[in-house]
Amino acid sequence: MIQNAVRRLKTIFTPRLSAANVSPRLLELATSGNLDAQAVLGEIYFNDGREENYAASYHWNGQAARQGHAASQARLATIYDKGLGVEPDPQEAIRWWRNAARKGHHGARQAIDRHNRDDGGVDLNTAPAGFCAALDARGRHRGAAKGTPADSLSPQALEISEEEQIDGGRG
Questions:
Q1: Contact between residue 34 and residue 63 where contact means Cβ atoms under 8 Å apart
Q2: How far apart are CA 78 and CA 63, in angstroms?
Q3: Is residue 112 predicted with pLDDT exceeding 60?
Q4: Is pTM, for the whole model, over 0.85?
Q5: Percent helix, strand, coil in the chain (nearest 5)?
Q6: Residue pair 75/50 in contact by the 8 Å Cβ criterion
Q7: What residues form DSSP beta bridges with 135?
Q8: Fewer beta carbons within 10 Å, N or C terminal of the chain?
Q9: What is the mean pLDDT of residues 80-101?
Q10: Dihedral of the CA atoms 68, 71, 73, 79 (nearest 10)?
Q11: Whether 64 contacts 56, CB under 8 Å
């Protein structure tokens, strides 16, 4: 009970990861190929919404997406779909949404459904049973990751990131 209270207080008083306070250690981990760090950076820059961060969002989401990270694949699809720092490419968007949907990413499935309805195509719910075999009864992947950046970050990267945020990035 006390541990939960401490954890909540730590969450409240720990600054959120943002493009303005990305830790050098997190960048180092991502540059060295750490999938979790790449995915977190991709999400940070994607959620920032500022045009000057589109290139970083595209880069880090692309790195993690090519390694099979479902949420990064879905974000990369959105980047292509909306033309965020790249030329809009609906075919690439669909390709990445399909990759993410095959891994059980619920948002990617919804995006494909929305695209299919807009284009007069077939709803994803009519897909062959084999496509949805890894999904549970609610249409979610059995091993789906949580939706926040810190939930997908490896314990080592999270600890380093939290320590540097508390120290103000001094390392």
A1: no
A2: 15
A3: yes
A4: no
A5: 65, 0, 35
A6: no
A7: 141
A8: N
A9: 95
A10: -160
A11: no
